[in-house]
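Archive entry. Fields below.
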Amino acid sequence: MTDGRRARYVALFAAESRTLLAGARRALAAWGDAPTERAPADELFRSLHTIKGMAASLEYEGLAELAHLTEDGLVAVRDSGAPPERAWLRELEATLDQLALGCESAAAADGVSSEPAAGEQPARKARVVRVDLDRLDALFEDLGGLVTARQDLERQAERDALSPVARAAQGMARRLDTLQDRILHVRLAPLSEVFERIPPIVRDLARQQGKEVTVRMEGDELEVDRAVLDQLAEPLIHLLRNAVDHGLESPEVRRGLGKRPAGSVVVRARRDRDSVVLELSDDGRGIDRASVAARAVAQGILEEGVALNDDGLLALLARPGFSTATAVTDVSGRGVGLDVVASRLHELGASLQLTTVPGRGTTFVVRLPTRLGIVRALVASIGDERYVMPLTHVAEFLPWEPEAVRQEDGRAVIDLRGEAIPVVDLRRLLLYRGAPSPRRRPALVLEANGQRIALLADAIHGQVDAVVQPMDRPRGMPRWITGATVLDNGRPALLLDLASVV
Amino acid sequence: MAQRVLICDDAIFMRTMIADILTGAGYEVVGEAESGLQAVERYKSLLPDIVTMDIVMPDMGGIDAVKAIIATHPDAKILMCSAMGQQALVVEAIQAGAKDFVVKPFQPARVLEAVQRVLAG
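PREDICTED_STRUCTURE:
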């Protein structure tokens, strides 16, 4: 077998084994629901049989053997005439997970990544071209140049909105919008590519620890940028490892607490305006606030007696090197903690949030950018520094005068239609020490994660399509500065991630 | 003229592998089928010189497909593809009218030998 030919077979194997195992799981569930039916058993048999044949052809001996033994066991039960026992079905589910992991790692060891190879997925009959992401990136950079040129042209055309040049500029702007949308669309890929790998990993992990778990995945049809998707599996799996390892209790402990013996892990994806939001929840013991606080106090990074809210807790857990695991287990330890997860996600332009309730469980919320590269943004300034902020979270803006602000529970708030909204001054946030602020300043009302704040700037300069350059954040730069862009006058500006300011 | 082959297997992986082996030796793959029912239909419309037939397929297995094809085309040349441990089924397929068999995982030389044997016989 030539190398090129083998690579093709391995890619087919990776895609087809995944489809087969997904079908096998559905058949297993159907069999559990209707134990006297024969069709699910037959489908399971065919899947195992085909995986065995493929694995043997690629000389994955261990995998072929496992599929073979499982197939034999299945035939014995199917042909016994008696309905399968629950315990046996659970074992079979575990074996399917093992096979899934085995197929993935065999293909990976053979140099085929676990993403299904586009165009080689048997279920899809669409005509497909595979494109190297670098080529799309190059296309995207050209588009960035065009968007900047367009803004230049539009500014020139503003002088006479009815001139033929202005009309031509408008026509071009519309087409450019469409082109931008299409290019961004090409880069989208469904979350299912990552999601379908998760349940076997989580169940396998729980089994290793003698825990029981049910895994539910929702919203896997939502699409995100390929570059984001490719980097997503690792941090998500890490968060879920933590959930199983540190969050979920053993079945005995759970029974004692009046919980169902099997813990629950739910990954839910939903769309929120321009973003896709992932919620990773477990119903375990929750993060031990007191022990995190004690450790932080011991390390001298937290004052004694300070109450830790969820944000403060996450900030501590995400500090490099901070970990509360008293014993490093085989799973979550490995020296890679929440700090790495948080910084990985931030590099992707994603933000992380945490909610944890003692005895009830923990939820991590990961907000992903759906679209990389170009954001519709508002330009605001402090002194003569300009900043851009994605419009996604800007609800409205209002003029603000110092008299409007009042103190409530030790915080500065302003009243907006009867609701007190906390005020955050961008000057303080950015530690600006230049010229004094003007008396009248605009307040941006920002909305994210169900909360609102009023952000004070010195001035607002209108909207732009900002072409965002990812940035290696220097040490010490706040997390909510997520990128940089060049304004149409050629000046650089920093991009503020407003969701994490709120 | 190249001999015309119909490949029947529910796994695209296996169909690709067999197609590679046969086209590499100058055969022409005129059709593929992924179920027994499809195999019977395709046989009738394509009338290939030889058929490779998997045993385990959805919507009518390979053995029933052999029976259905032989019932209307007694001279059909069918080569069974079986996995290890399916000897009993192979015997049943031969009794139903299949001419020979190869065992997975496929050795290209074995597959070609068997195809030549069936075509010569």
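CURATOR_NOTE: Helices of chain B lie at 12-24, 36-46, 62-72, 87-96, 108-120.
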